[in-house]
Amino acid sequence: MGPRTSSSYSCIGVKGGTGIPGTPVSVKIGFKSSGGDGAILLSRDPTERTRLKHIGVLKAHMKAHYKWMIETYGQIEAIGTDDLALIYGQDRTSDWAVAVSRDAARGAEVEFEVFGSGV
Predict the structure, then answer these.
(1) How many whole angstroms separate alpha carbon 35 and alpha carbon 33?
(2) Beta-bridge partner residues of 26
(3) So where are the chain's domains?
(4) Which superkingdom is the protein from (predicted)?
């Protein structure tokens, strides 16, 4: 199973090298942003993904009742509907790395270095 990325990230390459016998092996995986918000999940172990169903209905409900939520729970520093993020899924695994970006510049790059057992 490879890395999971939002639509704003793409993999730009994998670089690896064999080490001296008995030392950790290193692999670097690079990603490039097309700009905006995004996330990358990189897992060495199997990953189980679950998602909520009927996301569109939930999004419409939140937008329709946004003013009521503010009146009931209060507004913190003028949060707008575009500032809210709806988390509608989860990936479960035992070993991972993650990167999250907000308003990333187009062309911004991130690189993960993954270590494995020695040869």
Answers:
(1) 5
(2) 17, 115
(3) 1-48+95-119, 53-87
(4) Eukaryota
